[in-house]
Amino acid sequence: MLFKSFVISALIAAAAAAEQGVQKPAQDPEFGPDTVHGCYSSKGTMKAAGTSNFQSQGECATTCRKLGKPVGASQMDQCWCGDAYPPKSSLTKDSACGEPCPGFGTDACGGLNAWTVYNIGIRKQVADDPDPSTSSSKAPESTSTNAPAAATSSAAPSATASEESDSGNKTNTVGIAVGVVVGLLVVCAIGGGAFFFYRRKRNAEIEEEHRRNAAVNAFIAGGKPPSSSGGLSLSDQRLDPVMAQRRMSDGSIADNEDYSRRILRVTNA
Question: What's the pLDDT tens digit per position in 171-224?
């Protein structure tokens, strides 16, 4: 009885060990749960989304779902996410994906140069990446067809650069011309102001000199110098009228004599 139980336990353990890392067959995509799409020898255009010591199909599907990517792929402890399945030409046999997931051994997480690809359930219809061999065969036609356009596009920047250079030169020329004109106007304004200031100053000096000469002449002639307020008499009222009419050549007036009245002299007859 004991031996029988031991055999049954061994068979169960062997069966469990045999199920570790077995790639599930491809399933039709469903909206909601993640479904296996197949084992591929290429990850296509999918990008690495991180690594985890507890990597599994469900763990990677959750990561891609957060990123909004409809396709996920696991390889050992790495997770990959993308918007399209790998190229159909890279679809390989399921036995190539026999690496148990570190977080859930019954799931297969790819293998050596192999990826377990699945639809994570946010979109049922997902496109496949184009086959590289097909793309490379069409590349020469595309290159030859687009060659004139490329030449035209390369010529366009040159023409644009030339136009921008001409525009820049014209702008610089106009700026220099405007600066020269403004400078000349400033110099002329300064020169004109200096000329009028000097002329006005000179006229004022001439008028002042003329006024002084008129005052001196009026004083010598015994008259009144012109002024706005009528002025003051420059003749001394104390002077003898007779003496005031004498010319400067007839004699001079003594400073210590009072000529305001006639001088009476007493003599012995």
Answer: 778 888 888 889 889 998 998 888 888 888 888 889 888 888 888 888 787 655
* Phi, psi for residue 71 in degrees, rounded to 5: -125, 140
The pairing of strands 91-92 and 35-40 is antiparallel
In tens, the pLDDT along 150-178 reads 444 444 455 555 566 666 666 778 888 88
CA-to-CA distance for 46 and 85, rounded, in angstroms? 8
Query: How many other β-carbons are positioned within 10 Å of the β-carbon of residue 154?
Result: 9
Burial of 6 (0-12, 13-18, 19+ CB in 10 A): exposed
CB atoms under 10 Å from CB of 211, counted, come to 13
Tell me how far apart the alpha carbons of residues 188 and 191 are, in angstroms, rounded to a whole number: 5
DSSP codes, 31-94 = SSS-EEEEEES--TT-EEEEE-TT--HHHHHHHHHHHT-SEEEEETTEEEEESSBPPGGGEE-G
Q: How far apart are the first and last CA of the chain?
A: 203
Cα separation, 202 vs 65, in Å, equals 97
Torsion of CA 240, 242, 245, 247, to 10 degrees: -100
Q: In sequence order, what DSSP letters do the residues of 92-126 get, joined into one string?
A: E-GGG--PBPSS-TTSB--BTTBEEEEE-SS-S--
Tokens of 225: 């110098």
